[in-house]
């Protein structure tokens, strides 16, 4: 424990220097109110790290004094050791955040690869005629984009006295706010909520039928490229 006092002191000093600088700049009203983003970046990337380095050197020096050994090494060498201990978790945290930003915070659902699709079936109310493909307009609506759907007329069918239309649409963006608008000539417009998570995981089969207020129903699944 005593042999590591200079490193412990440097780590504590770096943390204290970082936050003390943030606090001092906040209390003095540092920054440009007209450009708070630039001021914040300057504080986090320049001034606070500089305060951390000053605190690290002071903490290392105090640790060496407390340690009280002649062979403790120079202040510069011990400060570098403390810096290495501080830098390692900071680099790990930065790498983890970068991975998170790339893999989850970017809007594309499947960047640099084929786009997943939403496969769906809409079962119309009893007695509704099976519409022609040209009489149908389908659109996926999200808080990121709008995407026209494609009808699969060769897969349209009758289910008892009910007509079933089939289609798909691309899922380009990562978002949990999706709805499918279905317009059929001569019928009221329908909007179905799509209850997929933001990442829209692949599903092996269509889900359960979900009712609409007008008596129609929808079921769907997310299909990822290369998977059944």
Short description:
This protein has 228 residues and is an alpha+beta fold. The protein has helices at 5-27, 36-67, 75-105; strands spanning 117-123, 136-142, 146-148, 150-151, 157-159, 162-170, 178-184, 190-194, 210-211, 217-223.
Core attributes:
single chain, 228 residues, alpha+beta, Immunoglobulin-like, six-stranded antiparallel beta sheet, 3 helices, rod-shaped
Report on the structure:
The protein is α+β, with helices and mostly antiparallel strands and 228 residues long. The chain folds into 2 domains: 2-105, no CATH class; 117-223, Immunoglobulin-like, CATH 2.60.40. It has 3 helices and 10 strands, in the order H-H-H-E-E-E-E-E-E-E-E-E-E. Strands 1, 4, 5, 6, 9 and 10 form a 6-stranded antiparallel beta sheet that branches. A 4-stranded antiparallel beta sheet has the order 3-2-7-8, with no helix packed on it. Helix 1 (5-27) crosses helix 3 and helix 2 packs antiparallel against helix 3.
SS elements, strand count: 10
Task: Using the 3D structure, state the CATH architecture of the largest domain.
Answer: Sandwich
Averaging pLDDT over every residue, what do you get? 81
Radius of gyration: 30 Å
Which series of helices and strands comes N to C? HHHEEEEEEEEEE
Domain tally: 2
Low-confidence stretches: none
> Mind describing the biggest β-sheet?
6 strands, antiparallel
The tally of helices reads: 3
Topology of this protein?
Elements (H helix, E strand, L loop, with lengths): L4 H23 L8 H32 L7 H31 L11 E7 L12 E7 L3 E3 L1 E2 L5 E3 L2 E9 L7 E7 L5 E5 L15 E2 L5 E7 L5
Antiparallel strand pairs: 1-6, 1-10, 2-3, 2-7, 4-6, 5-6, 7-8, 9-10
Helix pairs in contact: 1-2, 1-3, 2-3
């Amino acid at each position: 424990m005593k042999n590591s006092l200079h490193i412990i002191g440097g780590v504590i000093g770096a943390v204290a220097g970082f936050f003390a600088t943030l606090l001092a700049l906040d209390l003095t009203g540092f920054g440009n109110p007209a450009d708070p983003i630039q001021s914040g970046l300057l504080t986090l990337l320049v001034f606070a790290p500089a305060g951390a380095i000053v605190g690290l050197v002071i903490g290392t020096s105090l640790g060496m004094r407390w340690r009280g050994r002649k062979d403790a090494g120079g202040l510069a060498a011990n400060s570098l050791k403390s810096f290495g201990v501080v830098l390692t978790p900071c680099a790990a945290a930065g790498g983890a955040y970068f991975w998170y930003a790339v893999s989850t915070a970017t809007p594309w659902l499947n960047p640099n690869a084929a786009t997943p699709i939403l496969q769906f079936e809409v079962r119309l109310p009893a007695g509704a005629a099976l519409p022609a493909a040209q009489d149908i307009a389908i659109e996926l609506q999200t808080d990121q984009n709008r995407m026209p759907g494609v009808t699969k007329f060769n897969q349209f069918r009758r289910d008892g006295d009910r007509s079933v239309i089939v289609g798909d649409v691309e899922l380009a963006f990562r978002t949990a706010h999706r709805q499918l608008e279905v317009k059929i000539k001569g019928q009221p417009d329908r909007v179905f909520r799509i209850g997929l998570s933001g990442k829209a995981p692949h599903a092996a089969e269509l889900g359960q039928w979900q009712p609409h207020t007008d008596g129609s129903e929808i079921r769907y699944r997310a299909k990822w490229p290369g998977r059944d």
